[in-house]
Specification:
Layout (H helix, E strand, L loop, with lengths): L1 E2 L3 E2 L3 E4 L5 E5 L3 E6 L5 E6 L10 E4 L5 E5 L3 E6 L6 E5 L10 E4 L5 E5 L5 E6 L4 E6 L13 E3 L6 E7 L2 E7 L6 E5 L6 E6 L6 E5 L7 E4 L5 E5 L20 E4 L5 E5 L4 E6 L4 E7 L11 E8 L6 E6 L20 E6 L5 E6 L5 E6 L4 E7 L4 E6 L7 E5 L7 E5 L7 E4 L14 E4 L9 E5 L3 E6 L36 H11 L17
Parallel strand pairs: 27-32
Antiparallel strand pairs: 1-39, 2-39, 3-4, 4-5, 5-6, 7-8, 8-9, 9-10, 11-12, 12-13, 13-14, 15-16, 16-17, 17-18, 19-20, 20-21, 21-22, 23-24, 24-25, 25-26, 27-28, 29-30, 30-31, 31-32, 33-34, 34-35, 35-36, 37-38, 38-39
């Protein structure tokens, strides 16, 4: 395993979706670094009237633009040169904090959700117009993404709204976002909607308090079918209709399957070719090792040096550790569902056993692996371009700056400890880790960042493999932490950049005027 050298970071530091760049937002500038050369390639100077605190910092889907948001302004900059700059002033009502700010279906579309569900504002940077849609059903930061979805290929926007106690679904065309159709779904209290990856289906699910119900609509809004719970429930599930209903749904990347979880320990798999349930996965209380099932138990070694995380394969029957009895709230059901790139494996985490990861083979309809940790599992993330490779993060004091990587051919999860690459040997403030989204031709790499430093880790077997970065100062990455780079160690300003800064100061920043608003009725 090889590490890059440390680079100065901040609370806002993100790799681009394609994995080729890393952008860091500082109080007065944005530093964009190339992963390949490991050198800064562009510096964006923030206008003097654009000051923090910053609410959002995002890459565009194409890795071409950067979005920076404060309370009263949104700024969009070109990540690689100074040829683009747009400004949106007062995107929501004064004194209201937006709960969601991000790019929409394209690089030139910005979505902003106002507090208290007042409106969803969609800004088109090309036409300098804005569309406001009132009464979105979900506006909190934790639930807002369940309330709208963009259709793949065509980029149609499906939005769930609620007015006078009645749910409504509206379909808006791209890029104008003109209303094409709206209808009342066959639900009483819908909890979300989602387009399938191939754009053939729009699914809506009912509140758990109202039973098991997932509604399938065609793209033009016609009702096709309703799923009302397990087709052949087991003896333990014979009274499923009396329990809570749908908790979450998730499509496979190839759109062939839909996973539906409720508040039990079961997971339903629906074949989208027939929209029929074809598989029911049951999380067992007792785990018995066998040829097709790998059970890995974590062991933590604590000494004067770094904490060591190793895994041993269970040879006897074992039960996964339950949620602590002193937990503030006793939860149930499958909280996390994640399909891998091949759509053959599903990783799940259920509330009753929060420190256990279950990995299922849906083609063979068997449980392939169970990973038992000491701490609660917080995130599961499959690699976006490599099949059957899972990144796991846990919570707890023993997991400071540590993540785990699992694949079917490995001898248990492999720990990746970033703390030894940091100046203080521990994270400062909040930290996060994610896959570096490079293609499968490069060794697997992980991006890590806290509020002071960021670093990359390559899972290459040896230094002879080609690394995604060039690191002349610390080529092996195993000799301890390197000197953190200052944000002032940047590329020298060129004449073009100086001209760009002068242009910004003149006020020629492409302000967007909110002049095209409308409401709609069924």
């Amino acid at each position: 395993m090889l590490f890059s050298k440390n680079v100065k970071s901040s609370a806002h530091c993100l790799p681009s979706p394609d994995g080729r760049y890393i952008a860091t937002l500082f109080p007065t500038l944005i530093n964009v670094r190339s992963v390949q050369s490991w050198e800064p390639i562009h510096v964006v100077r923030l206008p003097q009237d654009f000051i923090g605190p910053f609410l959002s910092f995002q890459w565009s889907p194409s890795s071409r633009l950067l979005l920076v948001a404060s309370f009263d302004q949104l700024r969009v900059f070109s990540a690689l040169d100074g040829n683009y700059h747009a400004t949106i002033r007062n995107p929501v009502a004064p004194h209201l904090k937006p709960t969601y700010i991000d790019f929409g279906a394209s690089d030139t579309e910005i979505c902003v959700m106002a507090s208290f569900g007042l409106k969803l504002a969609v800004f088109d940077l090309n036409s300098s117009k804005a569309i406001e849609i009132g009464s979105p059903k979900f506006s909190s930061s934790t639930a807002v993404r369940r309330g709208f979805s963009f259709r793949p290929q065509s980029n149609h926007l499906a939005l769930l709204t609620r007015t006078a106690g009645k749910d409504m679904i509206s379909i808006h065309a791209f890029p104008s976002r003109e209303l094409q159709r709206s209808w009342a779904p066959d639900t009483i209290d819908a909890q979300g909607l989602l387009w399938s990856p191939d754009g053939r289906w729009l699914v809506v699910w009912e509140s758990p308090a109202l039973g098991h119900k997932v509604v399938f609509y065609t793209p033009d809004g016609n009702l096709f079918k309703i799923w009302s719970g397990p087709v052949n429930p087991t003896h333990e599930e014979k009274d499923f209709a009396l329990g809570a209903g749908v908790k979450t749904v998730q499509f496979s990347p190839d759109a062939r399957l839909l996973a539906i979880s409720d508040h039990s320990r079961s997971l339903s798999i629906v074949d989208m070719a027939s929209t029929m349930e074809v598989l029911r996965l049951q999380h067992p209380n007792n785990l018995v090792p066998k040829g097709t099932l790998q059970i890995w138990q974590e062991r933590i070694g604590i000494s004067h040096g770094p904490i060591m995380h190793t895994f041993i394969r269970a040879s006897q029957a074992i039960s996964p550790p339950p949620r602590p009895q002193e937990a503030a709230e006793q939860l149930s059901g499958c909280a996390t569902i994640a399909f891998d790139l091949s759509s053959n494996l599903i990783a799940t985490r259920i509330e009753e056993f929060p420190s256990t990861v279950w990995i299922w083979d849906v083609q063979a309809a068997v449980l392939r692996a169970v990973l038992l940790f000491h701490g609660s599992v917080s995130t599961l993330s499959w690699h976006p371009h490599v099949r059957e490779t899972l990144l796991i993060r846990c919570e707890g004091d023993h997991y400071n700056s540590v993540v785990f990587v699992w694949d079917p051919l490995s001898e248990g999860p492999q720990s990746v400890d970033f703390s030894q690459q940091l100046s203080g040997f521990k994270a400062v403030g909040k930290w996060h880790a994610s896959w570096l989204g490079l293609d499968a031709s490069t060794p697997l790499s992980i991006f890590y960042s806290d509020t002071q430093n960021y670093v990359l880790a390559s899972l290459a077997d040896s230094d002879r493999e080609s690394l995604p970065w060039i690191n002349p100062r610390n080529p092996q990455g195993g000799d301890g932490p390197s000197r953190a780079e200052s944000p002032l160690e940047l590329v020298p300003a060129t004449e073009d950049e100086a001209d760009e800064e002068d242009a910004l100061q003149t006020g020629d920043d492409g302000d967007i005027v909110m002049k095209d608003t409308y409401g709609y009725k069924r």
